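Thread: Modeling a multi-component assembly for a lab meeting

Hi all, long-time lurker, first post. My supervisor asked me to bring a structural picture of a complex we are working on to next week's group meeting, and I have zero experience with this. I have the sequence lines for every component (1578 residues in total). Could someone generate the structure of the whole assembly? Inputs are pasted exactly as I received them:
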Amino acid sequence: MWKIGQRGVPYFQRLIAAPFTTLRSLPTSLVETGQNRVIDASLTLIRERAKLKGELVRLIGGAKATTALLGVPLGHNSSFLEGPALAPPHVREAIWCGSTNSTTEEGKELKDPRVLSDVGDIPVQEIREMGVDDDRLMKVVSESVKLVMEEEPLRPLVIGGDHSISYPVVRAVSEKLGGPVDILHLDAHPDIYDRFEGNYYSHASSFARIMEGGYARRLLQVGIRSINKEGREQGKRFGVEQYEMRTFSKDRQMLENLVCINF
Amino acid sequence: MWKIGQRGVPYFQRLIAAPFTTLRSLPTSLVETGQNRVIDASLTLIRERAKLKGELVRLIGGAKATTALLGVPLGHNSSFLEGPALAPPHVREAIWCGSTNSTTEEGKELKDPRVLSDVGDIPVQEIREMGVDDDRLMKVVSESVKLVMEEEPLRPLVIGGDHSISYPVVRAVSEKLGGPVDILHLDAHPDIYDRFEGNYYSHASSFARIMEGGYARRLLQVGIRSINKEGREQGKRFGVEQYEMRTFSKDRQMLENLVCINF
Amino acid sequence: MWKIGQRGVPYFQRLIAAPFTTLRSLPTSLVETGQNRVIDASLTLIRERAKLKGELVRLIGGAKATTALLGVPLGHNSSFLEGPALAPPHVREAIWCGSTNSTTEEGKELKDPRVLSDVGDIPVQEIREMGVDDDRLMKVVSESVKLVMEEEPLRPLVIGGDHSISYPVVRAVSEKLGGPVDILHLDAHPDIYDRFEGNYYSHASSFARIMEGGYARRLLQVGIRSINKEGREQGKRFGVEQYEMRTFSKDRQMLENLVCINF
Amino acid sequence: MWKIGQRGVPYFQRLIAAPFTTLRSLPTSLVETGQNRVIDASLTLIRERAKLKGELVRLIGGAKATTALLGVPLGHNSSFLEGPALAPPHVREAIWCGSTNSTTEEGKELKDPRVLSDVGDIPVQEIREMGVDDDRLMKVVSESVKLVMEEEPLRPLVIGGDHSISYPVVRAVSEKLGGPVDILHLDAHPDIYDRFEGNYYSHASSFARIMEGGYARRLLQVGIRSINKEGREQGKRFGVEQYEMRTFSKDRQMLENLVCINF
Amino acid sequence: MWKIGQRGVPYFQRLIAAPFTTLRSLPTSLVETGQNRVIDASLTLIRERAKLKGELVRLIGGAKATTALLGVPLGHNSSFLEGPALAPPHVREAIWCGSTNSTTEEGKELKDPRVLSDVGDIPVQEIREMGVDDDRLMKVVSESVKLVMEEEPLRPLVIGGDHSISYPVVRAVSEKLGGPVDILHLDAHPDIYDRFEGNYYSHASSFARIMEGGYARRLLQVGIRSINKEGREQGKRFGVEQYEMRTFSKDRQMLENLVCINF
Amino acid sequence: MWKIGQRGVPYFQRLIAAPFTTLRSLPTSLVETGQNRVIDASLTLIRERAKLKGELVRLIGGAKATTALLGVPLGHNSSFLEGPALAPPHVREAIWCGSTNSTTEEGKELKDPRVLSDVGDIPVQEIREMGVDDDRLMKVVSESVKLVMEEEPLRPLVIGGDHSISYPVVRAVSEKLGGPVDILHLDAHPDIYDRFEGNYYSHASSFARIMEGGYARRLLQVGIRSINKEGREQGKRFGVEQYEMRTFSKDRQMLENLVCINF
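Re: Modeling a multi-component assembly
Sure thing. I ran the full set together rather than chain by chain. Output:
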């Protein structure tokens, strides 16, 4: 997927941006009011889908926690390809592909809705197309995750999306659970630039946002292969525990015996 | 894209269908009520998106008719591949691809929102995932088209979706305009089986549905290359004007001089 | 490769099946007689090919056992793709591809016909095209394997084919050797459904057929990653030793020290 | 498909050729006898398949001429890629692909065995693998075509195969019909080299073989785009009528009004 | 090929640009002197290759004009993909591909060096890697074309390269022939922006550069499908004759009877 | 990439070879003189590029050793595909691809010219196109490597090229350093045939050339998976230490503790 938007304005914001001189004189309140109505309708739709799935799982009964797929088709905060904007339906297709069967190695039956439910995608691209900026878009992602968490026993499994969505997702979990969480982050990169290429919401900056917001109690980054001076400084600044692959053998024992406390 | 659903129930309806014995005893009213809430929320979302786009085009002013993209990511009524369920975002990507520019051969500027606007996709797969059947789903497609038509000067350009959606789309146009319409149908197949492989909503039956519903005054099918006995009989039954490629040279003059009356 | 046959009759059986009303009144004996002549000719051809290869290897002399490739281009018993119907010539092409050389890691020279010979493919698709059903087709596979085994020192290495052919191949080996054999089956699935999607010869049922027929003394299934209740029950019923990957570390020592007795 | 054989002997003849010093001392008669048995068995198999198909078409009745597919998976006489050795099953798959339907533009129903039957492939690669050379192999192709023609009302439609098979196929037709035939050859090349890269049976020499054998009364080559001095001289020598694309407008009228006489 | 350079400096200029603060203090004269030596050596190499090819063609004798391939592997002035930077060797590979033969439709033998010779590529990427900017690079392209033209009877056929190279190539031809030339430009775009996305040497601005430089007497642009206001204004400003596809039928007669005068 | 040259003369040598009878009578001295001028100009160009890069690295200062990329686009000594003739620019593209960043696992910054510099490609194909044979071409490769080594602190990292270039590269290093070197050769094949398919410079013979020339003090070949009788005999003849994968566990300890002496 090409960076279509690079010629100028992102194509999803064309409506507002393109005939700029004309639209600049439009009453802002009108545009904003309309955008808010679209956002509200989007959240209502996600709430209703989560609610129906929650009701059904509860009616069947017996589930303590149900994985609930929530797709976030967002790719514009990637500094390279933007394919993640198209990813969620392809991921679902792979899950249900006829070449595999639905019993997991641990014996779980994925076709049982108490094991795996699906509340669909956030209409990310439609919201962007309406001219909504990333400040508000990221809040929509957070709100959507919370809406799913409100329906017991659903537990959201978010299908990205580029790595920028880690920020609104972790934020939602933290706010919903009532405090900072512990994160085990498996990645070759720390994604902790203050800003990457000037983008506050860059996929390479999501953990800077998470740490700044106080949404993490401990952040363990394991598997780092490519980190530069800024990555190390930001790690130190936020008290991140960074484990690089080149010293993995030394850390392995400790990492394999991590215990999840109080969660 | 594989026919995932062929193993049994379509995967979008798993929730309801999979643990059938359990769910059969669920109170139908509860399921249906939840589904209706999801459908209502979906239509509200489309209405709000169309409304905002319509408001903006009207504010800029000067547009008599604006193409409004409406995506219908639906593929399960295809008897072969179901890729159209994933098509609309790929079509948009091609439209805005950086390898082309945005001025058409006739000099129109596609970046002008008065020329081309976008109201996004109908959440078809999410609605199916909630267990909504095709009777109600097709109505959602019709209603969505009408919602776009309500926002002057938007004119919906529907991005499929397999050919089954011709039925709800034509139906919406006819109902909105107040009577049957004339259709120039360019295709190698007549898509007029009564049912194809038992499917009332098959992509090969959409024009049977259109004719039965009385949504077309004249139906001209041009370019037919593969038609069998049933196709011819159905054509005769509904008074369809079928022009096959093997006799195209004979019909060419007349077809090139078709005049659009009263529209 | 698409499941071409899903529209109705498998395309290889079209001749018999398509104009069903007409052909049903055809004298069965005539059709069956013709089919039997085709089957006999097919087996004769395989016998002659194996015989010539056997004669040559014996003439050169010095070989205790010679791998003899036998292709089985059969894919219709797969519940997903049917590509194995086209596989054997592609496998041969890979074996002799110019990017590799013909000396194995153990120093064997694959170009020496005493190491590797080839008796070609069973004409599976042609036999199916004649309207022969799977009962007789599977017997043709068994007979072909036996014909190769009759030519000392040839040892058939069967190139599939979907997994349904394990049944006729194991059956042939057992019948030829004069009793049930021990099988080390490396697979992520047990392929032991009584029937899969109603298919007695399904690629997912081949080991049920093998066990029912009494062709295995011991069946060790190693590497199982996806097994459901029926798989476990069938395993118990037939006395199969199933080793799953999730407990592999426990079983590893024993499995690495399996000894081949009396063979 | 790579030219696997270029390292030395074609891989299908390895058995005979590889350990040359050893095999050279083998009694030729033994090898030849075995090869002849394989060839006889191959022809018997084709005869039986054609016979059964012919019987069924005659039993249903009413067919004046039935297209009978005969595959010739042969590619080694190509001077470039050898993929045609794998082509016939892929061609059949395309014919029956679910993306198309089985009614032709002229209204023929391909599923009717009186319209289209299939007698399968000649086991070309197996015969080559036995060490049979092209002299005898080409005769097998000719004999196979004749065997199909003997079963009224079957008319062979040969699926190649590189262009070298035009020679044995035309030869068979001519011999069966009792005299030289008229050929309308549509191609960008004349394929009339005496030998191409030393190969008497080259795909670029097939029409030289046809003309030398006296199997054509008239040969019209239409569409020639690439012809050199040898091509023109050979054309003149054999009295071929060569129509090049660069002068097509001049010849078009005549070519469009060719009449088929006495056939 | 991705727009690698978009992260910051084009990678071919990294050496100079990357540690900017350090290099800025380097004595400019030293860098420039070294770059000039590289440019001189590049031109010497092209001169020697053209000279040898010219000598040989003249020695064989009898050629009035010989096509001489000159590759320009340059892609960074494209606003989309930059693949043309890798194109010339792929073009040559296609010319000599074994799937075609070397006689053209008009009977020319491409293997005759008097018909087609090759002087290789300009080392564009190496020159850029040394930090040479486009002002000087474009002069290298012009000089190279002239060097080939100096070797009678060679006529350069330039293999691009994105469309930005039209400018230095036309310039070279004009300067070498001693005056402005007539150009028949077949393209869907006029490539006549003053600057495209700020790039003076953009592939979309090459004909603006040609017209400004006075290198064209007449410029006929035929086949235009996508032109905007700036394209039309620039055309008018420079007296370009623009023929759009939408009115092609009107202009066809005249365009097919263009006569080449005085050339 | 196809073996284009197999039809006769390699296409890069067409000029000399094609009209053989004519050119044979050309004064050899003329051709050779021209070729020598082209070779000299090629080496001058490489010298100038290396010199400029060396000057800059020395000016910035502080580097003890700088990796200097040198591309050798040569593929005709491969016995299979010849794609390596096109490889170097693709390798560079991968190095700078936007999907990765430029900090290595060990913390090196690849964008720093003191870490990684680039002196471009040897114009291998242009030299071959001039009719220069492999004897002289291989010397050009050796000379080019030496030219890079002359610019302290540049250390050439040669980007191939098929494996035949190991010979001229090792030769250059040995000659430059003043004596035979120790080589740790990681490969599945020993590449030590006396000649492979008659080619003295074959990619499968490069280590035979290295050993014959006395350019290696010790040659350790580690990872051998496919070796035949000739490979073993050549190994013995030259005193090569060959470590095969099938006995790797035995040799592992020793190989992991190899110490680099006196280098």
